Amino acid sequence: MSSHTGIPRSTESALAAAAEDHALVSVPAADRKSGYQLALSPVSVATALVVFAIAGFTVVLAGFAVGLTVGVLVAAFALFLGRSLGRMAFETGMSSTLTSRFFGFGFVGSALGSIVFAFMILGFLAVEAALLYQGTLLMFDLPDSWPIRILVYGLMTLAWITLAVFGLKFALRASGVLTAVTLLVTVYMIVHIYVIQGADPTEVFRYGGVVPGGVWPRFEAAVGVMGATAGTIALVTTDFARYCRTRRDVTILAAAGPLTQNVLMTVLGSLVVIGGMPEVVDYLMAHNTDLGPEAAAAAGSTYVMQNTGAFFVVFAGWAGFITIYAAQAKAQAINAYSGSLSLVNLVDSLTGRKPGRAVMVVVGNIVALVMIAAGILEKFTDYLAYLGSMTLGICGVMIADYYLVRRARYDRSTHRVERWNWAGVITLVLSAAVGIALMATDVFSLGFLVSFALTLVVYPVLRRVLPEGTGTSFVSDQEAAEEAV
């Protein structure tokens, strides 16, 4: 029997279910997966162009030894966060923002976390689209005009919406192949630089960075660039931890993204960026006769963060150009997917309406386009640090509530969800404000770490002063989260 759309009801129902992907319900046992299967999602995000840029820029600033050391430390921190938050999502079977209703913020209070996480993850969606756009201009020698912007960004946006709207299964199927392609072309670039061109890899390992002073200034600069992403990869991991079958799967999932993003990509990114910079400078001089050696070197340095795709285009031509789109296709699908989950919770918690996740995918991509128009690429490092204070604040409040206050005990049948958890809301606002103020005034460039530490101290104290039910009411089980059928 066909419906009024002309599509068989069984097919229409399957498409609708795929699009929603348990956005407002607990994932049923039948849909749970192994950690190895789920690990493809954070790995997809961790091999995106923006991560390549962050890794390369970290080493440019701090040098290889300090950059890799910081990468290992940040990976360990992100693993701790992802495993801690992932266990909560595993217990509830819900996304990170829905889980924050149960631990830390309450039903309406979780909207605050949704806003922060949505802006962070949609910021990555915007930045990565902007990097692709710059690579496209370079490949085809196109002018940066409004007709070109509308055409390229329009096509990319349609692609991200199509990829994200049908949820986890399609993204996972595509991730393995596209991640392999990305890594293979990156390896080809390394072979080209060090085998064909004859560059000396030991120069990369000895590279000391451009930040003046001793080890601490370089260490601080590296953590300032890379450390703020720990909360983001942890929250992305949490969105997929709801699909885990066991706690062991949570650990496998939590390790995949940080190790790829902060260790593997630091090594690959530095080998390509540091070793390949001379050839990029030569390329710029050959294609722009007005540039002298110094001007070309300065332009090449800006490519690390603002036109990362140029390295792929210069070294691998069409193969590199296709690769940057392949790399971004799977990462952008996950970014748009996680962003839509946050927006679904935002609308539901504030209005009581239950929007379709597919609609929120479209809304999220529109927000990303606005960010691009506002020039997010040029301000990305500041954006990362300030929002890092907020995302790490969210992580800290949830961890403090679940592990320090509730002692890791959760019983769905007796757990009550407040409309507002004022202790969590106040802790997040206070800790994020302190961290941002420290960074904005140049008192301490790693203020986002202060934000995280403050939440672990302040929240348990405030929870004693403002116990459950203080200044708020409780929502029904049906409001807190629908049961999956």
Automatic annotation (TrEMBL):
Pfam families with a match to the protein in the record: Transp_cyt_pur (PF02133)
- Tell me the membrane topology, using the record's own terms: Multi-pass membrane protein
One cellular component term from this protein's GO annotations in UniProt: plasma membrane
> Which GO MF term does the entry hold, naming one?
cytosine transmembrane transporter activity
| Major localization listed first in the record, in broad terms | membrane
Keyword Membrane: yes or no? yes
The protein's name: Purine-cytosine permease family protein
Source species, please?
Streptomyces tendae
Q: What is the lineage of its organism?
A: Bacteria, Bacillati, Actinomycetota, Actinomycetes, Kitasatosporales
